[in-house]
Amino acid sequence: MKVLVTGAKGFVGKNLVAQLRNIRDGKARNYHGASVSDIFEYDLDSTSEQLEDYCSKADFVFNLAGVNRPENQADFMKGNFGFASALLETLGRHRNACPVMLSSSIQATLQGRYAGSEYGKSKLAGEELFFDYARQSGAKVLVYRFPNLFGKWCRPNYNSAVATFCNNVACDLPIKVNDRSTELELLYIDDLVDEMIAALAGGEHHCEFDGVRTVFRADGRYCAVPVSYAETLGDIVDLLEKFRAQPSSLVMPEIPGGSFAKKLYSTYLSYLPKSKVAFPLKMNSDSRGSFTELLKTSGCGQFSVNVSKPGITKGEHWHNSKWELFIVVSGHGLIRERKIGTGEIMEFEVSGEKIEAVQMLPGYTHDIINLSSSDNLVTMMWANEAFDPSQPDTYAEPVENK
Fold this sequence. Notes:
Number of helices: 9
Number of strands: 23
Radius of gyration: 29 Å
């Protein structure tokens, strides 16, 4: 399928084109069953001749071109309605009745705080133009009214509060929140792109609007992405502050699959300056080697890395309730465990050549010995709880009674 994307260099366009390329190049297989052979990228620096050529060949059109912040209000209609007219006229001249998707805005409802919006009026005019085109040409038209968008590559200090907040927090710049309780409906860019690829393959989601509220209906006139989030500015800022603190606290905030927090974290990371992409970890070093905490969680313990020098024995302690996993990733070692009050010792020879996890059982004193005379032993460690120096639950006792 040959796909035309107008506004290809914009926020949505860049993300969509990147995924279309993945499909075209076989990197994203079985993605909604979509097939892409050619991608025609049209933007402000493209020519009218290119638009003619693309419109004559396209099997599907994503019209993402538009004006968000013109110098004067009249340019909303010129940039949004005007280009939409030119696009449809060009398709009509070539008698190309391929499906066309239009990126509109929730502001086109002209309801609530959007009443009287010149931007909304221009988007609504574009919608009606597309619906008229569908009636006249028989082409399939998919009109999406987007709420506030966020995600990687979104331009800060432009028309996205989330992009601005992410950029400023990542770069230690000030942010201003007039009302923490202000709620935004937010749509993540990857969810939007996923929906657009589904639409390309004929699997779009239809809806109607009750004011600004999306009501999904199979026979709906409009289309919408089934996943969005209602979040307050205060909650967004609080999450971003936790993300900023992670390199120093090592505590990873809760980011469940599909959650807003997970998608906001991905967005935040995309704005990090080079100076923050890498950050130091505190290595606790002595003559035996080193121990470094890597990551902590609020409910699932912590991760660490332990380096033992040749011939060194580490550990020789036990826990009442805490348990751990030892995973040797480099070197050759021996893990030993003995149940407290007994003389029976379990031994596990471990090596980076055959990576496996060994559980340190509650009530068992344990150690780890580097069997090599020349190489370090590197062990990844997970404990079911973050270390609390006030209640360490750690008691010294050798594994082998001498």
